[in-house]
Design goal:
Layout (H helix, E strand, L loop, with lengths): L2 H21 L6 H8 L3 H7 L4 H24 L5 H18 L1 H7 L1 H4 L3 H28 L9 H17 L7 H12 L4
Helix pairs in contact: 1-2, 1-4, 2-3, 4-8, 5-6, 5-9, 5-10, 8-9
């Protein structure tokens, strides 16, 4: 992608992030984003052919990349794969709850977004997460720490579903014991 196009896309994503904070994801329009970026609507549509949904997804993916960078640093300090799974899920739940834009995209009824936009976002999120954990996943499987019969894509989707359910149906107290009892055994090789 040419540098000018990348710069314009980044400018639009920054403007969208600002508008989402000001108006909320559900009420932000392409006109709002274009005005905040100091660009025409046509330029926004040329840069993001999918329109508003594609801009929302770009903001979500940037937020997610930032979270995954912080999570990777934190997981490197965990004593075991089991601890990494538990703390990764706990951190992901806290991240989504603490980021209204992300929460709005993962709970479509709260934001009023179309199911199509959410499904597209989920697909991108799953792919990004799988790509980020793939090297660690492969290493853990080689060392016999993860079940050999699972795939990174399946494990990420499973954890994504667990995280989504924990957001939708919060538990009282610390969820770590629940995760250690029911989620960890689904992924980690028993010793």
């Amino acid at each position: 992608m040419p540098q000018a196009t990348t710069d314009v896309r980044e400018r639009i994503v920054n403007a969208a992030e600002h508008c989402f904070a000001r108006y909320g994801v559900g009420k932000t329009t392409i006109e709002d984003i274009a005005a905040a970026a100091g660009l025409s609507r046509a330029t926004v549509y040329r840069s993001f052919g999918g329109g508003r949904d594609e801009v929302i997804l770009a903001v979500l993916l940037r937020d997610l990349r930032r979270f995954l960078d912080r999570l990777a640093a934190r997981l490197a300090t965990q004593a075991s794969v089991s601890d990494g799974v538990v703390e990764g899920v706990v951190d992901a739940v806290a991240f989504v709850r603490g980021e209204p834009r992300v929460a709005a995209l993962l709970t479509p009824e709260a934001a009023g977004h179309t199911q199509t936009a959410i499904a597209g976002a989920a697909e991108h999120v799953l792919r990004l997460c799988a790509d980020r954990v793939r090297p660690y996943f492969a290493m853990a499987q080689r060392e016999g720490l993860l079940r050999a019969d699972i795939t990174v894509e399946g494990a990420v989707e499973f954890l994504f579903r667990i995280i989504s359910s924990m957001i939708a149906l919060p538990r009282d107290g610390d969820p770590r014991e629940f995760l250690r009892t029911y989620v960890v055994p689904a992924l980690v090789e028993s010793r």
